From TrEMBL:
Keywords: Ribonucleoprotein, Ribosomal protein, RNA-binding, rRNA-binding. This is Small ribosomal subunit protein uS8. Gene3D superfamilies: 3.30.1370.30, 3.30.1490.10. HAMAP family: Ribosomal_uS8_B. The keyword Metal-binding does not apply. One of the primary rRNA binding proteins, it binds directly to 16S rRNA central domain where it helps coordinate assembly of the platform of the 30S subunit. The gene is rpsH. Part of the 30S ribosomal subunit. Contacts proteins S5 and S12. One of its GO terms (cellular component) is ribosome. Pfam families: Ribosomal_S8. The keyword Ribosomal protein applies. It comes from Kordia aestuariivivens. Belongs to the universal ribosomal protein uS8 family.
């Protein structure tokens, strides 16, 4: 059993990406589904599929690689807020990741969104992770 399901999600994606796997399967939750949608919308993953079963369901993610060099598109995916040390930021304090080249995924009162979107909507929240 693991105490931080978001860190487990990020670690599975990171490990599969660095090992060169095409698809990674992860146990599903509402928060993980929202993070997956953001990664797809921002172009970090190729596609995804939610498979619902009676108990929990799973998420199948097709990872994206550079066509020429075969390097993974996700260079780094890093957990920021942990269960032991939550990291919150106001709308004006949301971080810029790699001078705007990466994204910060933020859990707000309006749902899970990128840091840029949260700034546009003028809401702060818990900074879940950085992806670049």
């Amino acid at each position: 059993m693991y105490t931080d399901p978001i860190a487990d999600y990020l670690t599975r994606v990171r490990n599969a990406s660095s090992a060169g796997h095409r698809v990674v399967e992860i146990p599903a939750s509402k928060l993980k589904k929202e993070i997956t949608k953001i990664l797809f919308d921002q172009g970090f993953i190729l596609s995804y599929k939610f498979e619902d079963s009676k108990v929990q369901g799973s998420i199948k993610i097709a990872l994206k690689y550079d066509k020429m060099t075969k390097d993974p598109v996700i260079k780094k995916i890093q957990r920021i807020s942990t269960p032991g040390l939550r990291q919150y930021a106001g709308a004006n304090e949301l971080p810029r990741v790699l001078n705007g080249l990466g994204i910060a995924i933020v859990s707000t009162s309006h749902g899970v969104m990128t840091g840029k979107q949260a700034q546009r909507e003028n809401v702060g929240g818990e900074v879940l992770c950085y992806v670049y």
